[in-house]
Amino acid sequence: MKPIFVRGVSNQFRLTLAVIMSVMLIVANDRLTPVRQSMATLLSPLQYLASVPGDMLDNFAEAIATRNMLQRQNAEMLRQQLMMSERLQRFEHLRQENERLRLLLGSPVHMDARKMVAEVMEVASDPFHQQVVINRGLKNGVYVGQPVLDAQGVVGQVVDVSAITARVLLMSDTSHAIPVRITRNDVRMIVNGTGELDEVELRHVAKSIDVKVGDLLVTSGLGRRFPEGYPVARVTEVERDEAQAYARVMAQPLAALDRIRYLLLIWPSLDVTPADALAPGQVPAQTPDQTSAQTPADGAQTPAADQPVGTAAPQTGAQSATETGAQAAPQTQQQAQPNTQAQSQQQSQTQPQTQANSAAQNSTAASASNTAQPNPVPAEGNNTAAEERR
Amino acid sequence: MSLQAPNGRLIVWLTLFVGLLMQIIPLPEIVEAWRPDWLLLVLIYWTMALPHRYNILTAWILGVALDVLLGSTLGVRALGFSLVIYVVALHFQRMRNFTIWQQSLLVACLVGVYHLVVFWLQYVLTKATYSHDIFWPMVSSLAIWPWVFWSLRRLRRGYKVR
After folding, report:
1. Which end of chain A lies in a sparser environment, N or C, as judged by fewer CB atoms within 10 Å?
2. Three-state DSSP state, A372
3. pLDDT tens digits for A215-260?
């Protein structure tokens, strides 16, 4: 028979224990990656099991696809492939040219990154976060912090890996941010997720910054996580309200985050030095509207910053390129912080030699001098000074 | 603790496993917000039926497993589960004597508490935005509880789970 009163550990004690353990887990969450990894590995078969019904539905849908549908799809694919291959031909030519120029300058050549296609698994995730689970894991070499793309642009990054699955945090999640630059004028910014799938925001953008609706934002590579040059978002709204400290800039992610199915995992190649990854982000475009956006503060500071640059001999580029590679990374980080002006000026003597032209030198120096601003505006090149040196 | 030898442990863990699976199985977008908390319902049942074998710490372990599977901060759902199951473990005798509809209402309230705790923690930890969606599982759990209850009772009696 069942006893009515059973002695044992009291419920209060159990609850206290559970609460303490939960709080410990919550507090130590960020340091528990290995624990989480092994638990995720243990539980990942469950995820595969849960995705079976969805996969079956997909297979069923494929099985009943009509001949007509397939033909139409095929024709569309062929057309797309033709267009792509035409673009690829042009691209190949440009790539070779770029490689040759880089060789001439003595800068390291970009290597192709290793890639892998992953499929999104249909399992439910925490409703408060924007994540997807993919069917690749440690076994395929996936690592935490790995960039994830789709056909249109950046999707997000891996935050959690098990042996056979991985969890990707989408770029639209509130906890996600990517350093980007505008392709038109190389202004650097940071894209933050808002929690909406089709909207991201650019925070702390000074009102004087030249950003327009329609600007394309690509990864700048400054975060050292995403390789530079991948498209991220397009600016959809710029609002300069005098009552606000910063401009309100919204953008729309290029990747179709609401209907991702196949993703691309990339392994940024290790032999690309930081300088290589960073240099193009610093080359300013010599567009007229950029000089028009120059703030008075920049103008006042540039002459002073120009002095050390003028003394650096551009011809030494080839010899000191390797040094430059090692130094450029810390330097750009310093540019983002105030009070390092003296340091960055010193370094700017050696740094810009990887650049293609002398105008670039000027502007990097200007950006170094620019550090007093809360949001470092990349420098608008002082063109007159550049011409003098030529 | 209990004087009887345990029996049918496998059945209990199997039902909990199925509950865990039901939590992560994909649902169409429209009903996604209405997903009943299967795992919590199964846990509530076993705590009511065998409070000295399956209780707060069982709930805690499964909560951690669910946290890992859903990719949220570890310990959030574990804490929510523990709190709810504590209430059930305190009042299991009273709950057994409720009619099925009274039980359903109480279970719905407990599910609501669980979702509030989870939301609150997520709000503190990361910037979770509030939406009324977090209360829909209360409604679906209310509707689904009698069936969970009846089928699990049948299992328990059929396999003489003690």
Report:
1. N
2. helix
3. 999 998 888 888 888 999 999 999 988 888 899 999 999 998 888 8
Residues 6+ apart with CB under 8 A from A199: A172, A236, A250, A251, A252, A253
Locate A90 and state its tokens.
């042009």
Is residue B50 assigned to a domain?
yes
CA distance A165 to chain B (A): 11
Tell me which chain B residues have a C-beta less than 8 angstroms from the C-beta of A35: 74
Interface contact flag, A22 B68, Cβ < 8 Å: no
Could you give the CA distance from residue A234 to residue A251 in angstroms, rounded to a whole number?
A: 5
- A175 at interface of B, judged by CB pairs closer than 8 A: yes
Q: Which of B74, B119, B133 sits opposite A25 (nearest CB)?
A: B74
pLDDT in tens, A136-188: 999 999 999 999 999 889 999 999 899 999 999 999 998 899 999 999 998 99
Both structure tokens of A214: 């329609």
For A196, which residue in chain B has the nearest alpha carbon? B129
CB A170 within 8 A of CB A131: yes
Nearest CA in chain A to B81: A18
Residues A305 and A375 in one domain: yes
What domain count does chain A have? Answer: 3
> Would residue A119 count as lying in a domain?
yes
Q: State the Cα–Cα distance between residues A247 and A227, nearest whole angstrom.
A: 27
Task: Nearest by CB to B68, from A11, A23, A40: name it.
Answer: A40
The domain of B119 spans 9-24+33-158
Q: What is the pLDDT of residues B88-125, one digit of tens each?
A: 999 999 999 999 999 999 999 999 999 999 999 989 88
Contact between residue A84 and residue A78 where contact means Cβ atoms under 8 Å apart: no
Half-sphere CA count of A30, side-chain side, radius 13 A: 3
Which residues of chain B neighbour A50 with C-beta distances below 8 Å?
21, 24-26
Q: Within this chain, do residues A191 and A335 fall inside the same structural domain, yes or no?
A: no
Three-state DSSP state, B30: helix
Q: Indicate the burial class of B109 (C-beta count within 10 angstroms; 0-12, 13-18, 19 or more).
A: middle
Respond yes or no on whether ipTM tops 0.90.
no
Gyration radius from chain A CA atoms: 26
Residue A73 lies in a domain: no
Best of A1, A4, A120, A128 to substitute, by most chain B Cβ atoms within 10 angstroms, is A128
**Does pTM top 0.80 for this prediction?**
no
- On whether residue B1 sits in a domain, the answer given is no
Q: What torsion, rounded to 10 degrees, do the Cα atoms B13, B15, B16, B17 define?
A: 90
Chain A, residues 256-285, CB within 8 A of chain B, namely none
Range of the domain at A363: 274-313+321-389
Nearest to A12 by CA among B84, B75, B86, B64: B86
Domain count of chain B? 1
A245 and A354 share one domain: no
Domain assignment present for B3: no
Same domain? A204 vs A327? no
| The three-state (H, E, C) secondary structure of B36-60, written as one string | CCHHHHHHHHHHHHCCCCCCHHHHH
Query: How high is the pLDDT of residue B82?
Result: 94
